[in-house]
Amino acid sequence: MVELTLGGKTYEMRFSLKSMRTLEAHYKKPIGKIFKDKDSLESLETLIAFYYACMKSSNKSLTMEKVEDLLDIALDKEEITLEELSEKLSEVIDSSSIMKNSAAKSDEEQSEQEAKN
User: Fold this and answer.
1) Coil, helix or strand for 3?
2) Lesser CB count within 10 Å: N end or C end of the chain?
3) pLDDT tens series, the chain, 117 aa
């Protein structure tokens, strides 16, 4: 869990199973395809969708539009920059136990493959 302060209010952000399901519903495709679409990952729409998905689980009243408004106001008031938003999102994803377990499994599979060769 990572904390983000917007407009004087602190929000908890988590990249969880629920977050991934929210993203799949938004994009209407599996999470793996979302991460493989490099052009899409760099868009503002994706940034907002990921923030919404990561903030929603601990802030049930949030909507995508409300998250966009919060981010827009924070950027306008120079509370945060786009670069800092991207870094914070990376921190949330990297700290996720789902992603850590996935990376560990991938490393293990790669080691096994290298041992076979």
Assistant:
1) strand
2) C
3) 899 999 899 999 999 999 999 999 999 999 989 888 877 777 889 999 999 999 998 899 999 999 999 999 999 999 999 999 999 999 999 988 776 665 445 445 555 666 666
